[in-house]
Design brief:
Blueprint: H1 19-27, H2 30-49, H3 53-85, H4 93-104, H5 126-130, H6 132-143, H7 145-170, H8 175-178, H9 181-192, H10 197-208, H11 213-245, H12 255-278
Helix pairs in contact: 1-3, 2-3, 3-4, 6-11, 7-9, 7-11
Length: 282
């Protein structure tokens, strides 16, 4: 039996009355939320343009005004939601995420925390909360963390064993790649990504150790193919389960679902024709 899905995080508080309910219905109205999405997109473009010295020299003042205006709109929206939802605002993780993202933008632009101002680009991630499809994907990734953690722990063990073996086997001849455990871990990570693993790592090592392929080939097969595919399998399985438990009006039919529906419709038509032919009046 499918369990009832939780309410959307932007639904007004049904227990709110008077002005709080009116404020909630206003700020959580689809038109207002679409406006917030547009502001987020414009703010994302603005933050990107601010990284260009040429653009800042021409329109730096306008970009700054747009950035401040977007921040003010975000603050007003959050304040209205906090007023309308009350304590229920903090019970939803996405609301807390929005609050933290906007709060980061209020960090002073000078002093030891000035480097954190670069994190204001995280405001773009508010799109994840506003678009249901993106939100479901993010929820699937979050729910897959336990399974991903177990795979990551197994991969860490494989990397550590491989780093110790590589340091002992190749550390003397190639200290720049395998001179220590941290260096070996970094080199093996490069090998796992298949980025210049042959010419950059394996071929130079095999010049001094011709049988080094006996180490690298199994490591690549296990780390690059088996382990990474396990990560993908866990995420895909979680997304599939999330799709099955989603509300009916939010579910997007999968290709095999459409095929099954078409086959059932055809079988129903064939059954109706057979019953008609078997009826006495036919």
């Amino acid at each position: 039996m499918r369990t009832a899905s939780p309410p959307e995080p932007w639904q007004p508080n049904p227990h709110a009355t008077g002005i709080r309910r009116r404020v909630g219905e206003l700020v959580l109205h689809p038109a207002v939320q679409n406006f917030i999405i547009a502001v987020i997109i414009v703010n994302a473009v603005t933050l990107g343009l601010e990284t260009s010295d040429a653009v800042m020299a021409r329109a730096g003042g306008l970009l700054h005004v747009l950035d401040v205006a977007a921040l003010v709109i975000f603050i007003i929206e959050l304040a209205a939601k906090m007023f309308a939802l009350g304590r229920a605002f903090w019970r939803d993780g996405w609301n807390v995420f929005d609050f933290l993202v906007v709060a980061i933008a209020l960090i002073p632009s000078s002093g030891p925390l000035a480097v954190l101002r670069a994190l204001r680009v995280l405001r773009v991630l508010r799109l994840v909360n506003r678009l249901p499809q993106l939100r479901r994907i993010a929820e699937a990734i979050i729910r897959a963390i336990p399974g991903i953690g177990a795979i990551a722990a197994l991969m860490a063990i494989i990397f550590y064993v491989g780093a110790v073996m590589a340091t002992v086997l190749f550390g003397d001849s190639h200290p720049e790649m395998f001179g220590s455990i941290p260096t070996s871990l970094l080199t093996l990570f490069q090998v796992m990504t298949l980025d210049s693993w042959a010419l950059g790592v394996v071929v130079p090592v095999m010049d001094a150790h011709p049988s080094a392929w006996l180490f690298f080939i199994p490591f690549i097969l296990v780390s690059a193919f088996v382990m990474l595919n396990l990560f993908i399998a866990v995420i895909v399985d979680t997304m599939s389960n999330l799709h099955e438990t989603a509300p009916e009006d939010e579910r997007q039919p999968l290709p095999h679902d459409r095929e099954l529906a078409a086959m059932r419709h055809e079988l129903a038509e064939i059954k109706a024709l057979l019953l008609k032919q078997q009826s006495p009046g036919s």
